[in-house]
Amino acid sequence: MKRKAIAASAAVLLLPLSACGGSAEAGDGKTVTITVGYQSKTINTVTAGTLLRSLGYFEKNLNALHDGHIYKVDWQDYATGAPITAQMTAGKIDIGSMGDFPLLINAARGKQLNKPTRLVSVTGYNLRGGLNTVVTSPGSKLSTLTDLKGKKISTSVGSAADGTLVRALQRAGIDPEKGIEKLNQQPAVGASALSAGSADALSQFVAWPGLLAYQGRAKALYDGAQLNLPTFHGVTAREDFAQRRPAVLEAFLKAQAEATDYLDTHPVAAAEKVAKATELPAEVVYLYNGAHGISTFDPAIKPQLVSALKKDVSVLKAEKLTGDIDVDSFVDDQYVKKALGADYATHLASAPPTAAGEVWPKGAEKTTEFKSATDLLRYVAGHKDGIRAAYVPDATTGTLWFADKAVWVADGDRLLPFVAPATAKAYAAAHGGARVITYADALRRAS
């Protein structure tokens, strides 16, 4: 059954498609439609999708080309990267955004069908792997990866979240093929399965883990950042499109850079815009895309990310989703280098912001940062009715999480937050006198 589910997941990429799209000229020879595939609810692609669309920067840059054409943009929204790849290899999407594992499948299918695609930029990334999380139901007694042995775990086969699950299980000494029952499901289906009790755990990518935790429908079991392996989302373009319309692709990448600048300088406003377009809670969007969010945005194709992509190939090969993939030939940074110009070297050398706690007061247009978790808790305790959301970085991985959903440890006068119970217990065991406490106790101690 597992093999059939995996085969079906891969086969969907090759199904014939009837949707219209792709770079196309109207009968007048002047009007050109550019088709962009994006994932509105995969919110660390927003600078190439949801946020970019709402800001109108791509359309503005196209209008500035003055090359005798009238450009229109057809934005097509999908739940995952697989259908975007299918449309691209059918010549019906010009530019798409998706996660690192789907990007590799995109490269493999493009080569297989002689419709090559190229990775042309990066959207959001986390150098430790914190974009993916394994969660369980709120009342679950499961608290460690070893507890998952023999359990039903929902994930989307071929996704970055699946890759995190496979690697995490292997490190825990569990065979990801025989040691668990893997349910190959779309994120929304998996979330429902977890709530219904037909899945014991769920491994998914942004924004599902944070959303379910925020809604009280799940709690974190494993922070993907514990793998300490980069994970990211990026932009892929059809090679024939890029070669035929390089100025259009450059206009898109310049627009992406502008959207990234907007997100960096107006993180709260950007979160509100994405929330409005996706109907996700703005508090969840900010968890990932905020000033100290789990995701860092930068269009540059960093060497660390390319290296991680090469390591990902073995996971997909083991699941028989791809064969060998020439990552170096798939990566094509010439267009983003031209779009960013002299600033490209600066982008390559940039690092994620230092982790910090933040409180989003009700009615505020910006958050307040705190140097320590104790200071943040003290503020929250004194303003309980005026807090929209409070975020704290995991004491070991730096992954941001909701303060009231974190696992807290008291170590003398220090109050330390953790995303998952296992890491909190491990810290307490390694530090004499430290112990796991409730959030209510942490607030009381801080105040």
From TrEMBL:
Signal sequence segment: 1-26
Residues of the SsuA/THI5-like domain: 84-270
Keyword Signal found: yes
Keyword Transferase recorded: no
Gene3D superfamilies per record: Periplasmic binding protein-like II
Keyword terms, alphabetized: Signal
InterPro entries referenced in this protein's UniProt entry, alphabetically: SsuA/THI5 (IPR015168)
Top-level lineage group: Bacteria
Protein's UniProt name: ABC transporter substrate-binding protein
Annotated organism of origin: Streptomyces spinosisporus
Lineage: Bacteria, Bacillati, Actinomycetota, Actinomycetes, Kitasatosporales
